Amino acid sequence: MGPGALPARRWQLSLPPVDIHHCPSPNCGPRRDGLTPQLVVLHYTAMASAEAAIERLCDPAAEVSAHYVICKSGPVTQLVGEGMRAWHAGAGAWHGLDDINSRSIGIELDNDGQEPFAEPLMQSLEALLHRILMGWAIPAENVIGHSDMAPGRKFDPGPHFDWQRLEAKGLAAPTLVPSVDGRTAADFMRLARTAGYTAQADAQALLDAVRLRHRPEARGPLTQADFDALSRR
What we know:
Order of helices and strands: EEEHEEEHEHEHHHHH
Helix content: 25-40%
């Protein structure tokens, strides 16, 4: 876990430069213990507009923030410098690491969680991710959703986010692990934790989190396909 070699294909991406607006939020501080960004955490705003989200993320009373907000129509607004600790992740863990705020860059996406993400937003996200991953030497495996690090507590960026699109461009990648013997809930929990889902959560919350990322259409009891989603094929 942590910074590592970037896939060669990412260096070949042809993406437009990111036009970034600035609206500084007071809701930030130094990263703790000398930590630097190792992760990128994606969120949805679940608010009426990007402007409403920015207003809240800049409100000292709200005590929340993010490094970036991307509007549906494409504009990117930076609220917190990448070297600083934004307050976007809260309690949770990934691959055994906690204090995700000190280890990550948080990106809020203008979406209510009920519909597909707008094409201009996705194009801006791809360009921004490319810049962040190259700048901090963050591997694609370390681009995660809020729901990945906080199963059962958070559900964003939700079932309509196109993870496969990012993976096809080398901007995200699942942590695939060897399959395990057995097909019980306990077996699945062990597999999920090996794949990075180390936050405290029960079996159902872990299953829901894995499905949000890998099988958003899936419903019902645990199946072989849920194991396959996390296992090397």
